[in-house]
Every structure is written in structure tokens, then in C-alpha cells.
Design brief:
six-stranded mixed sheet, 337 residues, alpha/beta
């Protein structure tokens, strides 16, 4: 069978392709056998793509120094025995499938100022775990204990939607797809300003000044306020999404596969913004199946498989000397790519 594979995932290209064609701005800039292109790339754009992927595999000296200088603080979130089961949906003239246990007795702790990476294959339960924390599912078992700004601990699973609403200002989500998560009919100023407007934080000139400041924090010019999402690249759109998420000054940020829709050269720009947030003391949870990105973004990594946490530890320990068989198999697949 002849196969044409269109992707921005360079690891998949290395594993699957015999020949590769590199395109930019609608034109072919390089083509040839896979080994020739990957090992002896001639075009600057191809070399930049490959360097962007390889840079994630090298520990950043700045990142290592930051981990040593700012160790995590007290627990801000404790997950105890969390369980989420999706019931099988009945179909006409067919028996209902077995219930799906998406998260199975997960116990985990997140500390103030920590960047926690949750990784695993598709279907491992990592995204469901993150969304459980946001209170987006019902019928959960276990406890999710959150220490608020005032130091009071609350079990998020025991709260009504009305009680959860103010806490959602403190726990914010950056969505996976920067193309569908921004309203195409709203300007960037309206998109970033909407959470502040809805929550009565800023209005008028104060709102505009705050939006301009947030754009500066994510590396975008003030002039971007008047433009619409279609005028920006994927990486810039994701930075707009981050600016919207931090508009309410949250204490915890959840990134749900923030780079899965981005080309390799755009990943670095998003990673740079996340590092700036980490240096400011932001507590972050990074859900990703891209192990290189998780290694670069996280202080501690949790590997999930079939709804279970099978291994956790420092990025170096998980990626260089995994102990569990499932982690070893997954890492070896990536290394072959």
C-alpha cells in the first residue's frame, strides 16, 4: 500500500516515511530520502524544524537553575483516590458496551510554584484527570482538595456549580486547539478582556490597559488588540489563549496538550511563555503526549497508562531511567523515532 502522510510531527515522519517533502508557504523547499534530509538537511527551514525538535531533548541550564533556586512550596491541590467511569452508551438493537474506567484510583499532589507534567499515550486518562480538577465531570469518586487564597481547604467534588464558579478564577485552562478555542468574530481585545468584563474586574480604559499589559507578557504587540484571530499563526493564537487564561490572575494553570496543533518551530515560543510564568511563581499542570515538551516544561512528571499512575519522578529519571515496563515501552518507541 502506498501512503501519503501529512504531519508536523517529525518523530512520526522519521518512523514511517521512506521519502520526505518539506513545504513552506505553499512551496517545496526540500525533498529526498528520509535519512538524507534528517541527517544532511540543506534548506535553513528544514534545519530549523529539526533543531526545534532536538532542543526539547536537551535540558536547559536556565531551567535546571530555576528548579534548584525555586523549590516547590506547600501543597495547593491534593487528589485522593480519584475515579471517573464513563458508562457505555446504549445503541439501538445493540448491547451497551462495558463502562470505561478513565481514571482509576489516582492519588497525586501538586505544590505551589511547581510545574507538573502528566504524560501518556492517547486514551491513558491524562486529559480526563485534568478536566476532573476543573469540575467538568459529574459522578466522580474520591477527593480533590484545593487550598484557596485564604488557606481554607475545600473538597472540589463536594461543591455545587455555584460554589465552584469563584474557584474557576483561581484554576484556569488553556485549551488544546488554538484555532477553535478563540471566537473568530471577536477581536483580540475582546477575547482577552471577556473574562475580566464578565467577572467585573475591569472596564473601559482600565480594561484596555490590562489587555495591552497581558499581550506584552506573552510577547505580542499592543497593536494586536484590534486584529482578529485569523490574522495570527498557531503559536500566536496559543499565546493569546494563555493571555486570556492569566487575565484573572489564577493560582493554578492547566495546559491541555498546548502544542499538539502547532508546528515544531512554534512550540518554542509557547514554551518560552510558560517558562516566564513558571519564573513568576505560577503553579502549572501540563498535560501532553509529547514527551520532549513535557521534559522541557515540567519539574516533575507523572506517567499514566489505562487510567492509572504507573510512575512519577523527575524528568531525568522518567525519560532516562524509567522503572515501569509500560513507561519503558513508550519511551523506547519515541527513541526509535
Amino acid at each position: 500500500m502506498a501512503v501519503m502522510l501529512i504531519t508536523h510531527d517529525m518523530g512520526v515522519v522519521a518512523e514511517m516515511a521512506d521519502e520526505v517533502v518539506v513545504m513552506r508557504h505553499g512551496k517545496v523547499v526540500e525533498r529526498g530520502p528520509i535519512l538524507d534530509v534528517f541527517e544532511r538537511a540543506e534548506h535553513p527551514y528544514t534545519r530549523m524544524l529539526l533543531d526545534a525538535v532536538r532542543s526539547l531533548e536537551r535540558p536547559s541550564p536556565r531551567r535546571l537553575a530555576l528548579r534548584a533556586a525555586q523549590p516547590p512550596g506547600a501543597p495547593i491541590l491534593r487528589i485522593e483516590g480519584l475515579r471517573k467511569v464513563f458508562p457505555g452508551r446504549r445503541r439501538l438493537f445493540r448491547p451497551a458496551p462495558e463502562p470505561l474506567v478513565a481514571v482509576n484510583d489516582v492519588t497525586l499532589e501538586l505544590r505551589v510554584g511547581e510545574s507538573l507534567g502528566i504524560v501518556g499515550e492517547s486514551g491513558s486518562g491524562k486529559t480526563t484527570l485534568g478536566r476532573c480538577v476543573l469540575g467538568l465531570f459529574e459522578g466522580l469518586g474520591g477527593r480533590i482538595v484545593y487550598a484557596g487564597r485564604d488557606g481554607t481547604e475545600r473538597d472540589l467534588l463536594g461543591l455545587s456549580q455555584a460554589a465552584m464558579r469563584p474557584l474557576r478564577r483561581e484554576i484556569r485552562l488553556v485549551f488544546q486547539d488554538p484555532f477553535s478555542s478563540l471566537n473568530p468574530r471577536m477581536t483580540v481585545e475582546q477575547i482577552i478582556g471577556e473574562p475580566m468584563l464578565v467577572n467585573g474586574v475591569h472596564r473601559g480604559a482600565a480594561l484596555r490597559d490590562r489587555v495591552a499589559a497581558l499581550l506584552g507578557l506573552v510577547g505580542l504587540p499592543e497593536s494586536a488588540m484590534e486584529r482578529y484571530p485569523h490574522a495570527f499563526s498557531g503559536g500566536q493564537r496559543q499565546r493569546i489563549g494563555i493571555a486570556r487564561a492569566i487575565a484573572l490572575e489564577p493560582r493554578v494553570m492547566l495546559f491541555d496538550e498546548p502544542t499538539s496543533a502547532l508546528d515544531p518551530e512554534l512550540v518554542g515560543s509557547v514554551l518560552a511563555v510558560m517558562r516566564e510564568l513558571r519564573e513568576s511563581g505560577m503553579t502549572m499542570v501540563v498535560v501532553s503526549h509529547e514527551m520532549g515538551f513535557a521534559r522541557a516544561a515540567a519539574d516533575r512528571v507523572v506517567f499514566m497508562d489505562d487510567g492509572l499512575i504507573v510512575e512519577q519522578g523527575s524528568p531525568g529519571a522518567i525519560f532516562e531511567a524509567p522503572l515501569h515496563a509500560r513507561t519503558q515501552a513508550f519511551i523506547s518507541q519515541i527513541q526509535r523515532h
